[in-house]
Amino acid sequence: DRGPPSPSPGDTSVLAGLYGPVEVKGSKELPDRAALEVLLRPKVGLPGVMERSREQLLRRTCETVVLGVLHPRTAITLVLQVLSDAGSLLSCCLNAACMGLLDAGLPLASLFCGITCALDPHGAIILDPTTRQEQDARAVLTFAIDSAERKVLTATTRGSCSVEEMQQCLVAAQRAADTIFQFYRDSVRRKYSKS
């Protein structure tokens, strides 16, 4: 079941494919919940260390909202294929992951979205930075924010910033999350109004 490409900054786009829940036996079987696997495929070449690290963060984020106890002893595989990367790739992957879960009709405790913030050399916050803005930034932060209480599910930081700057980025990300959650609602409404 292939979901729609996610909302993306500029020309970054990721395609999500979700497979399962399917019955599973052996080492992957979890007796009390579904086993969730996330595979991140780069635009070209084979997945490397960066993709593996992002897969773990994406899996941890998805596991916090997927009600896996409703599908014990099954496996769910989420495949994210990078189509183009013009910056803010991790947040685009998070949004594609959530849209994929939502589109597949899996039971979720809440939705989540990804927001990337960059701090430029002067300390100004740039939301959804481009690749160039990320390269020039003093710090790049990506937050996965849940739709219920706007709390942070997972976060990653590259570079250096003060605690105050991190707080400012988080507030900006929480505000921006409202736009993405509205996009999700509109997308679902459009999908079901066609059927």
UniProtKB/TrEMBL annotation:
GO terms for cellular component: cytoplasmic exosome (RNase complex); nuclear exosome (RNase complex); nucleolus. This is Exosome complex component RRP46. It is found in: Cytoplasm; Nucleus, Nucleolus. It comes from Hemiprocne comata. Keywords: Cytoplasm, DNA-binding, Exosome, Nucleus, Phosphoprotein, rRNA processing. CDD domains: RNase_PH_RRP46. One of its GO terms (biological process) is rRNA processing. GO terms for molecular function: DNA binding; RNA binding. Homodimer. Component of the RNA exosome core complex (Exo-9), composed of EXOSC1, EXOSC2, EXOSC3, EXOSC4, EXOSC5, EXOSC6, EXOSC7, EXOSC8 and EXOSC9; within the complex interacts with EXOSC3, EXOSC8, and EXOSC9. The catalytically inactive RNA exosome core complex (Exo-9) associates with the catalytic subunit EXOSC10/RRP6. Exo-9 may associate with DIS3 to form the nucleolar exosome complex, or DIS3L to form the cytoplasmic exosome complex.
